[in-house]
Design goal:
By secondary structure, this protein is an all-alpha fold. Helices cover about 75% and strands about 0% of the residues. It contains 15 helices and no strands. Helix 1 crosses helix 13, helix 4 packs antiparallel against helix 13 and helix 5 crosses helix 6. The C terminus is likely disordered.
Length: about 325
């Protein structure tokens, strides 16, 4: 891998890690379900107008949009809004990796190797350590919501694997068309029918511009730019060469949260975070060559269009 492409891979990881800071800023201006809907709505309109629809069965596109878009983003934004530190969220959401392996075994009959089982066990141990720490100092609900968000991501990955799209990036972009209406409906029921729109109107005032910048960053810089570069790298190199760079995302997420938001990890939380990342890396190291050879696209962490990133997520962030 050339030095230039290594730098590009690191740059994408930084873009995706900064997403968590952008989400935290966005939540200071919009309610969580409405912010999630805005994130997809910014992409959905130009996608429908200018991007050809991928040739995949509609049911898999709908399930991918529901799992990755509605459940993952809706619950993740809700978790951060309810008190989940954005740095820890960037780590815990990596649980989508072992969840994808487990769902592949349960729903698709895929075999789980010993190495993958060891990775899953490590990731679970790390999340347990984080849960113990939060149970001592804060509410567990935000952590549970983040874990459920990771499960939604994994369900989206399974749908993407079954869809086997001819154009992975096009498929991921079209996924953005699915979540806005369900998320807006959730926002209307939970947050009030006018709350989000009122906040959006206030964003055009003198004090509201950071919210608009956050939405545009999440949708455009974090998703379109990041996924576009990542897809290009995956076309040049094997997934096993590119994918490990995605594990820089939680590192960036934690570092930025510490620098910008003064979020500090305790010893337990730091140990748990390192253990989760180690488990994801260990579990994803198995089977890379087989998946790359099969032509199944490799999905992304917080690309958050999920199109192209980590090896075990075969659809983004």
């Amino acid at each position: 891998m050339s030095v230039r492409d290594r730098l590009l891979a690191v740059f994408v990881a930084v873009l995706w890690g900064l997403n968590f800071l952008a989400v935290r800023i966005g939540l200071d201006h919009y309610p969580p379900f409405f912010l999630s809907a805005l994130r997809f709505l910014v992409l959905a309109v130009p996608v429908v107008l200018f991007v050809p629809r991928p040739k995949v069965p509609l049911r898999w596109l709908l399930l991918y949009g529901a799992g990755f878009g509605v459940f993952q983003f809706g619950l993740l934004f809700l978790a951060i809004d309810r008190g989940m530190p954005s740095g820890q969220a960037s780590v815990v959401v990596q649980a989508s990796a072992p969840f994808t392996v487990l769902l592949g075994a349960l729903l698709l009959g895929e075999r789980i190797s010993r190495r993958q089982l060891a990775g899953i066990a490590l990731a679970v141990l790390g999340m347990a350590a984080i849960a113990v720490e939060r149970g001592r100092t804060a509410a567990l609900l935000p952590l549970l919501l983040t874990v459920l968000a990771a499960l939604g991501w994994a369900l989206g990955n399974i749908a993407a694997r079954q869809a086997r799209p001819d154009h992975p990036l096009r498929f991921a972009l079209w996924m953005s068309v699915i979540p806005p209406l369900p998320l807006l409906a959730l926002s209307a029921v939970v947050e009030g029918p006018a709350a989000g729109w009122r906040d959006l109107g206030a964003s055009f005032g003198a004090d509201g511009w950071p919210g608009l910048v956050a939405v545009l960053y999440i949708a455009l810089a974090g998703s379109v730019a990041g996924s576009g570069i990542w897809t290009t790298l995956l076309k040049r190199y094997e997934a096993g060469v590119v994918a490990p760079f995605s594990m820089l995302v939680p590192v960036v997420g934690v570092a930025v949260a510490w620098l910008a938001l003064d979020e500090r990890l305790t010893g337990w939380a730091a140990a748990g975070s390192v253990t989760v990342v180690a488990g994801v890396l260990l579990g994803s190291a198995s089977g890379r060559r087989a998946r790359r050879a099969s032509g199944v696209p490799v999905a992304g962490p917080y690309a958050p269009d999920g199109s192209t990133s980590r090896v075990q997520d075969t659809s983004r962030s």
